[in-house]
Design goal:
The complex is a heterodimer. By secondary structure, chain A is mainly α. Chain A contains 13 helices and no strands. In chain B, the strands form 4 sheets. Chain B has a 6-stranded mixed beta sheet, with helices on both faces. Chain B has 8 helices and 20 strands. Classes of the chains: A mainly alpha, B alpha+beta.
Amino acid sequence: MEQITAAFPRVTRRRTRRREWLTDLVLLTPGVGYLLLFMCVPLAQVVLRGFGLLAIGEPSHFTLALYREILASKIYRDSIVFSLYFALGTTVVSLALALVASALLQVNFPGRSLISVLYKIPLVVPSLVAAFLVLTIIDQGGIIARAVARFGVEWPELVHDRWGMGIILVLVWHNVPIMIVILSAVMSAIPHDLSAAARNLGASPWQVFRNVTLPLSLPGISAASLLVFIGVFGAFSIPSLVGAAYPKAISVVMSTEVLDRANWALASALGTIVTVLSAVLLYMYYRLIRHQEAAQR
Amino acid sequence: MARLELQGITKRFGRAVAVDRVSLEVTDGEFLTLLGPSGCGKTTTLRIVAGLIDPDEGEVLLDGQPLQHLPAHRRQTAMVFQSYALFPHMTVQENIGFGLRMRGMMPEPIRTHVQEALALVELEGLGDRYPRQLSGGQQQRVAVARAIVTRPKVLLFDEPLSNLDAKLRERLRLELRALQQRLGVTTVYVTHDQAEALALSDRVAVMVGGQVVEIGTPREVYRTPRSRVTAEFLGITNFLEGKVMAVADGQCAVQTPLGVVRVDTTAGIQVGETVTLSFRPEDVRIGRHEGTTVTGRVLYASYLGAVTDYAVESAGMTLRIHEGGGALRGPGEEITITLPATAAIVRGR
């Protein structure tokens, strides 16, 4: 008798649980279904294609030939290295500028509100427009070149150059405001008393920045750097517009492979490399953050 | 060692005057408290001394030398903040050693000084913890250790005990006083808690509306306040307005709604003048004693442990009386009370 009464609620519980599970599934479908359909499916397709699978209208079999081809070719290798180079360069330069600007924006000075509006302008300017803006200023036929030419100074080539100066310049122009938005939000969340206490204990303004503001902004610094790096690493429009003929950014190479040669398989393999590199970086970032948080607990 | 002087310090925020021509002198090794309600300008005054805020007018002098040209980090005025302002990303040791490190001291002597400071505030063994792993009281001690380890000329406290529970506050109050006396460091302490001010200080400066209205030893400001605000801010008091009838034999007779009250003060009192008398509730006694006796009716009585707090109605006025011991009297009871001759005569608002 006791066993029966004990078993009875268990059965109903299991049944309700199954019903709840179904309800959960139905409720999750719009969100998760969207993610599955529009993000995971194309991503899986790209990855599989890179390994020679899922090819349409071609024989489909697993192969590492595409990756071997990429690694063997100097053009592809250079493009990956070049993309990493200007992504890193852009991130470092933007971070340095954004740190200085954000730190200054924490101080009250006349014209501060005007500046905090002005610096956001690049956020609303499309990167293509930005590229043209920069071109007209720093290109060899641009405003600065013309101005200094009068004094017999030859303006160096900063656009379509081997070192990607033009690319980095435009990308920095575009990414500094994004970083400032993130960094100044993080910095203004640091209690004022902390910097006051540091100054009171004998820290000069630079020492306050170095020992208090900077370490306490680390979460924001790493998030902003990551965001900019990953975004710039796969950037297409600006490298294709102001980049040199060689080396080309990886995204530019990918587009050439698809548009000029209809080589979807190779473009997919390159795309996989970009995605994996970004994912590895993201993973390392979370490891670092978790490590930092664990150290302080 | 260190004498601190404030001369005519004024600070405005927009149109509001936060600090209004404050002049003070803190002698070497003295513990001075700025006491006042919130928004009276006491914290602003403290931050001006620390160099965290620049005054609009006036000067801060340390041992006769003006501090105006010295930035905050060169002032040697260590401050304990209300929020403690401990650096969350540094351990207790690193927090305490911060000031020494900023002054370019080598790691080895820093460790020695930090250990000494930890021992002084009885936090040995907690050096490797992070501030968030400490209780409020422990954090407060770290903040104190961090301030004293730099051997400052002046120690500044900005309501350092206000975030602690009552019992801990009382204990740390005693510890702070003992520590300050042991170090003999000139100290300015800001609080809105009158008990804290009385217990800790050599002298108390009462601030209201940006101005120092009164300054004196705890006993002076409590027993013989010169202004109404001081009397009111430093605890419960009974005010009695009246007209001076006669001044003779070191006493003056004041005609009040409760009859003629004799007071043991004559200094500067003129016959015919209107004055306000201030009686502390513990000075007013139940029964017939030496002094001026009046009759009244108990409105309420609340037992507080050490004393019983009575409100007594007499001639249309309500008097507060604190009686230690004695029989408990209920509401409605008719009693005789004695107003002692030790009342303070206060002027102004």
